[in-house]
Amino acid sequence: MQIFTSWVVPALLGIFCLPAFAGVAPAFSTRDLVLADTDSDFGGYYLDIERTVERLQVSRLQAHEIQKLMRDELELLSGSPSVLEQAPYLSQALANSVDAVVSRGVSPSGYRPMRFRQGEFVIVFDLDETLLTHWYRHGKGVGINRKGSLSLAVRDVVPSFVDRATGDSLDQPKLTISGSMVQLRPGIGQMAKRLAAIPGFRGFVLFTAKEDRSAEALISEWRKQDASFFRHVKGVFARNHLRIGQGLKKPSKDLRIFDETLQHALLLDDNESRVMQQELCFAIPKFNADAYLDALGPDKPASAAAVLAANTGILPYAAAAVAACAKASRGGDGAASIARCWADGLGNAAGTPDAELKAYEAHLKRRGVRLDGIDLHSVFHQPFEFEFTRPLQGVFPKFKGSKRVSEVPVGG
User: Fold this and answer.
1) 121-380 is classed CATH 3.40.50
2) Tell me: the pLDDT tens digits for 240-250?
3) Rounded CA gap, 129 and 395, in Å?
4) Which of 101-105, 113-117, 319-323, 384-388 bottoms out in mean pLDDT, i.e. has the lowest?
5) Taking Cα atoms as reference points, which of 184, 26, 171 lies closest to residue 85?
6) Which end of the chain is more exposed for a tag (fewer CB within 10 A), N or C?
7) Which residues of 212-238 are buried (b: 16+ CB within 10 A; e: fewer)?
8) H or E stretch including 20?
9) What radius of gyration, in Å, describes the C-alpha atoms of the chain?
10) Is 225 within 8 Å of 131 (Cβ atoms)?
11) Element of type H or E holding 237
């Protein structure tokens, strides 16, 4: 449920009035700009992006950057996603965030606005289950640790107000915690090289629904391993950059951050349910790291060769499809033409995940890969069982001393 702050905590409205930011933005009050999400796993306070753009006279990108800093500060100070526990800190957190972005030019994502010419575009990548996996058995820090894996001190967390076993609502959230290992999907380098060669390519953006501190730790470690990939990365966005409002059922990615016309941004993502512009999402099968690592392990299943071929080929296959669609769509309406080409079947199949997997299966067979009757659903879509769920009073723990949250491990 998304409701104005004034409805959630009316007794605190007197606290929320902010002074005008002299020379930066007109006077406004917190209740003009802030929405509260009390139902989703990624709850807490969000900005009404459109009102923020209008009232503060900022760009859409700046509005999302303000929201990110505001949510970071609220989580740190309150140690909770609860709007009631965050409420006492809301006024100051918003004021600090507006000052940082508008007055001092702070850009937590690192992304700088681009002016696009016709045919130019950025490619936005999701992270979890698209380019990597943080939620898998070997991710607990035991078992197989091979090239392409990252060991992190900060784990990913999802605070849930729903009991995943029963579906019942919870008064206090349970915290679902990932393992300490991240496995990168094979083929990232080959895919990046192919995409970077497309005429009009302007760079990559990483946009994940992963918890922000975990995302920052992951990117820091990954950058050390693969500087060549990150030469093309123009910005990194995480959970606190998602938005609510405008009929969205859950906090979602809005590609207008990068281009208001939606003609110069494409998204590769395994989960279009968190995407506002689903028509611009190139759906890609989920990365099942356990199936991939089991095929590399000492006790290889009989299907190991086919599993490895399917895993190593999917990202280059997607890149080839994007390249073919970009070539076929020149002279059209930019990213929308490329996305329609993808949906219409050039290089991929339209619509459902089943159709996409069938198209990829046909591609593998044309390349001489023997699938030996394996089901690609089991290769890519095997669900991960959350083994780390436990109730906590503070979903975002407060820590003693001067350490930043991102420097301290989450969970045991």
Assistant:
1) yes
2) 999 999 889 88
3) 24
4) 384-388
5) 171
6) C
7) bbbbbbbbebbeeeeeebbebbbbbbb
8) none
9) 22
10) no
11) strand 233-237
Pick the closest to residue 141 from 150, 132, 133, 130 (CA basis). Answer: 150
- Tens-digit pLDDT profile for residues 84-134: 889 999 999 999 999 999 999 999 999 999 999 988 999 999 999 999 998
- 277, 282, 286, 287 alpha-carbon torsion, rounded to 10°: -120
Q: How many CB atoms lie within 10 A of CB 200?
A: 16
Alpha-carbon distance values, 317 to 187, 314, 322 (Å): 10, 5, 9
136: CB partners within 8 A, 6+ apart: 179, 183, 288, 289, 290, 293, 384
List the one residue out of 146, 185, 183, 125 whose CA is nearest residue 313.
185
As a whole number of angstroms, the distance between CA 195 and CA 319 comes to 6
- The H or E element that residue 161 is part of is strand 157-162
- Higher-pLDDT residue of 242 and 389 is 242
Global pTM reads 0.84
The pLDDT value given to residue 159: 73
Domain ranges of the chain: 2-103, 121-380
